[in-house]
Specification:
The protein is an alpha/beta fold and 308 residues long. The protein contains ten helices and 14 strands. Strands 5-4-1-8-9-10-11-12-13-14 form a ten-stranded mixed sheet, with helices on both faces. A hairpin with a 5-residue loop joins strand 11 and strand 12. The longest helix is centred in the C-terminal third of the chain and has 16 residues. The protein is globular and about 55 Å long. It starts with a strand and ends with a strand.
């Protein structure tokens, strides 16, 4: 079983409009709701790939109830969310059909009490006993300690479970110091962590800070990975237009699924890039277009650089 952690779960709402214009009213042509938050998106992609997956984190209030109802209808995902008194946040993505651009609005999340955090840690340790890998993803809701991911990485390491961390800011900085198996920042998050805007040395610097491997998202240019076995860049054959929301989460699912299957690094990167590209053609985060996935997977270019 692969475990995903989303401390700040969300009800993802996607609106599609013919054209997004500031200071005006819009007629929505399509509206969708999905269970969301980065780790929940990862869980749904993992399940679509055929993996047994359990999703944990917090859920509360009316939006949290909808998230759990929708998760119950997500084939292959086991709901292990911990109840909280505060209301689960909503995220709203507005897709401009004319340009293909997406505008995102993210609420902050519920206030988590010390008792709720303690209950989550108990649930997390129990779930680790049956996990082969864990994804720790996304922002921290108010009340959760800034060093939360460092705690979760250490607990995973003590249980012998490889942890992939996908976070930002101080939560990422502290989490890296706990020595996760892998981190997956984007270029901006990596620059904030290392102080360097050059992705190659910055990715290697992030490894020296504690991560066993570092895979950096380069947007349409694919992924850059610095690992104990070497350094590679993997790029899609072309830039795809569409909704990029959730593309990074699909990359995490690709990396984690390939890790549990024992694939080598080039194969891991090919899967992650193909899933990321296929998500751009999907209607919402946590989903991917199977036809695009198969097409891109056979055309991803992986280039090795000097050993990391």
């Amino acid at each position: 079983m692969i475990l995903t952690v989303t401390l700040n779960t969300a009800l993802d709402v996607t609106y599609r409009v013919p054209r997004l214009r500031p200071h005006s009213s819009h007629r929505v042509t399509e509206a969708t709701e999905r269970p969301g938050g980065k780790g929940v998106n990862v869980a749904r992609v993992l399940a679509a790939l055929g993996h047994e997956v359990t999703a944990t984190g917090f859920a509360g209030g009316p939006a949290g109830s909808v998230v759990r109802e929708l998760l119950a209808d997500s084939p292959g995902v086991v709901d292990a969310l911990v109840p909280c008194a505060g209301g689960t946040r909503r995220t709203v993505a507005v897709v401009d059909a004319a340009s293909g651009d997406t505008t995102q609005f993210n609420e902050p999340g519920p206030l988590i009490t010390a008792a709720e955090w303690s209950a989550f840690l108990t649930r997390y340790e129990g779930l680790l006993a049956g996990a082969c890998a864990v994804a720790l993803c996304g922002s921290l809701p108010p009340g959760v300690p800034v060093g939360a991911y460092a705690v979760l990485v250490r607990l995973a390491r003590a249980a012998g479970v490889p942890a992939l961390l996908d976070a930002s800011g101080e939560a990422l900085r502290r989490g890296v110091a706990a020595r996760p198996e892998m981190i997956k920042p984007n270029a901006a998050e990596l620059a904030e962590l290392t102080g360097s805007r050059d992705p190659l040395p910055a990715t290697r610097d992030a490894r020296r800070r504690g991560a066993h491997a570092v895979v950096t998202s380069l947007g349409p240019d694919g992924l850059l990975a610095a690992t104990p076995q070497g350094t590679w860049q993997a790029a899609p054959p072309r830039t795809l237009s569409g909704n990029p929301t959730g593309a990074g989460d699909s990359a995490v699912a690709g990396l984690l699924s390939a890790l549990t299957e024992g694939l080598d690094w080039p194969a891991r990167l090919i899967r992650a890039v193909a899933l990321s590209a296929a998500t751009v053609h999907a209607p919402a985060a946590g989903e991917f277009d199977p036809r695009t996935y198969e097409e891109v997977r056979g055309s991803v270019k992986v280039t090795a650089t000097q050993a990391g």
